[in-house]
Design a protein that fits this description.
Strand content: 5-15%
Number of strands: 8
Number of helices: 11
Order of helices and strands: HEHHHHHEHEEEHEHEHEH
Distance between the termini: 67 Å
Helix content: 40-55%
């Protein structure tokens, strides 16, 4: 018993020291993660987005960047539900949407065909009518297809006091609905001609696609007094390389193969929310890290539902 009494204080003392060691280790780990230390002599990357930088803004592509799939195709589903066109037209929309989601790239012929179909469908309808329907279609087909990771990126810019714009080839009325529902500043989109509030079935100019997006961003930046070298742009498509190249902070989000190669060559930041895996280049706002996991989870759930 004497020997046992001699051991007991040592055991308790060791336990106390273990607790102290564990607490000290946890505190050191917490401080290390907060400080994000770099190797000696390395320059720390400036925090981005920069809080209060009013000459900076963010420009987001929509299809497959902010939202899974193409907005125009989701819009087509909603119009079909409301008897705007017939079943054979819906089959065409469905095929184009399936191609877009499986291939992950924009087929110019499919996109042009979809735009022509949409223009013929809305011809003769009032702009106000389509705007109201757009609100309903967002709730029915689009709201649950927003990538949480990209949404977190946009929110990081908003939280920093910066304006955030969608830039898309989708009809501007639909783009504006999506931007408003996400709490973004506004949207640049393709403009369909209307006379006295009624669609004519023609475009004003051309679709906002490829180089046209870059020109729209350039014009908006000039009007808003923005410094493009301090702005960011986000897209999934190599077609948007002109827009991405225009800003000081380009990001490839869910990139197609061509954009991924270009981004790596240019040392642009990458993030892929389709699988939840981290991209090769890290360093975008911390909020997006949480979004990446959520985005991956959402994609897995969607895939599981399709297989049932």
């Amino acid at each position: 018993m004497a020997a046992l009494g001699w051991l007991t204080p040592r055991r308790r003392s060791a336990t106390a020291r273990s607790v102290l060691a564990g607490e000290a280790s946890a505190e050191a780990a917490r401080k290390s993660s907060q400080e994000q230390t770099e190797p000696e002599g390395a320059e720390r990357e400036p925090e981005f987005p920069v809080l209060g930088d009013e000459r900076a803004a963010a420009f987001f592509d929509l299809d497959n960047t902010v939202m899974q799939g193409a907005a125009l195709f989701h819009f087509g589903r909603g119009l079909y539900k409301r008897k705007f066109f017939e079943t054979r037209d819906l089959a065409k929309f469905a095929w184009q949407q399936a191609w877009f989601r499986l291939a992950g790239v924009e087929d110019p012929e499919h996109m042009q065909d979809a735009r022509d179909s949409a223009l013929s469908i809305v011809k003769g309808h009032r702009v106000a009518e389509l705007e109201t329907i757009g609100e309903e279609i967002y709730d029915e087909y689009m709201a649950d297809r927003i990538w949480p990771g990209t949404r977190a990126l946009a929110q990081a810019h908003l939280d920093a006091g910066q304006k955030v714009w969608l830039v898309t080839a989708a009809p501007v009325e639909i783009a504006q609905v999506i931007a408003r529902r996400l709490g973004l500043t506004g949207a640049l989109g393709t403009v369909a001609e209307s006379v006295d509030g009624v669609y004519t079935g023609r475009l004003v100019g051309e679709p906002l696609h490829g180089p046209a997006k870059a020109e729209a961003v350039r014009a908006l930046a000039a009007a808003e007094g923005l410094d493009l070298s301090r702005c960011a742009a986000y897209s999934d498509s190599h077609n948007d390389i002109p827009m991405l190249s225009l800003v000081g902070h380009p990001y490839a989000i869910n990139p197609d193969a061509k954009l991924r190669r270009h981004a790596r060559d240019k040392d642009w930041r990458l993030r892929d929310y389709r699988t939840g895996r981290k991209a090769a280049k890290v360093g975008i706002p911390a909020a997006a890290g949480v979004g990446a996991v959520a985005g991956g989870t959402a994609a897995a759930i969607a895939l599981s539902r399709r297989r049932r």
